[in-house]
Amino acid sequence: MHFGILGAGSIGCYVGGMLAANGQKVTFVGRPAMAKRLAAGMDLTRYDGLARELAPGSIDFSTDAEALARCDVIVVCVKSGDTQEAGNILNGVVAANATIVSLQNGISNADQLREVLPGRTVLAAMVPFNVARIGESRFHCGTQGTLAIENSVPAEEIARCLTQAQVPAEVTQDIQAVLWGKLAMNLNNAVNALSGLPLKAQLSQRDYRKVLAASVAEALAAMKAAGITPAKIGKVRPQIIPKVVGLPDWLFRLVAANMLKIDKEARSSMAEDLDAGREPEIDWLNGEIVRLGEQHGVATPVNARITELVKQAFDVGKSPRLSGKELLAMLQI
Hints:
Blueprint: E1 2-6, H1 10-21, E2 25-29, H2 32-38, E3 42-46, E4 51-54, E5 60-62, E6 73-76, H3 83-91, E7 99-102, H4 109-116, E8 121-126, E9 131-134, E10 138-141, E11 147-150, H5 153-164, E12 169-172, H6 175-186, H7 188-195, H8 199-203, H9 206-225, H10 241-245, H11 249-255, H12 269-276, H13 286-296, H14 301-316, H15 324-331
Parallel strand pairs: 1-2, 1-6, 2-5, 3-10, 6-7, 7-8, 11-12
Antiparallel strand pairs: 3-4, 8-11, 9-10
Helix pairs in contact: 3-4, 7-9, 7-12, 7-14, 9-13, 9-15, 13-14
């Protein structure tokens, strides 16, 4: 299989890099700045000590999507706000029999791609792990989890290639339930960006977790009204998140030890976007909950206010570094 990565950011570089390190043919398409960084090679590391390296000059990288024309599988890793544009670009480039896989946050990206790529095989997928770029060309996976791909014939082979490359992957029969489950967990991205802390440090503080609990409780109420049952992600059932994360610190450490299996370097993708000056995906995360609540008559004031605060932070260009207590007060929790 010849894999193409459209949107060579942290996730795209890690997934594509692991495939390339395992001998798969991989073509990366991204920005000139990333092309310059990766000319010197790529280092891939993981929370459990696993490490891979791609030598200088060994990475097939292009800034032109035409390079994806011969790929069998196109992995779309662009930000949600760029999905429509990515689909339009691919429509004039990729082979008719290519499989397109959306490795993006949110619920609706695969549907958007299908609209602009009629007749193509487009698969939704869910990435459970966090990847941070450290330095110029090191991509570090800081959390565990199994990537899920929408059920189809090509999905089986794609999952096999990923798993062989040490990116655990499986095919799921109900990708929508999985995406909603991941969205519930991704509501912490905004809390993390507003805190300015690494993920583990932020989740270790009860006041931040109270914010997350309130955000997820609203999401679950909106999902219930819409008839949506979010799937378990790894060992975590979304339905228990509000109760578990609201526990006192000492009890949370005992009950939710798996949630804290995050190394000290892990940060949310939204925090990375804030540092890099990229547009936030807040409208596809907390904003999705606000829209769902409006459609079904469920109030979502916490998610609405968090959406506002994140947009304000991105307007300024840096994290407000709010303490948990300050954030609780601003949200009136």
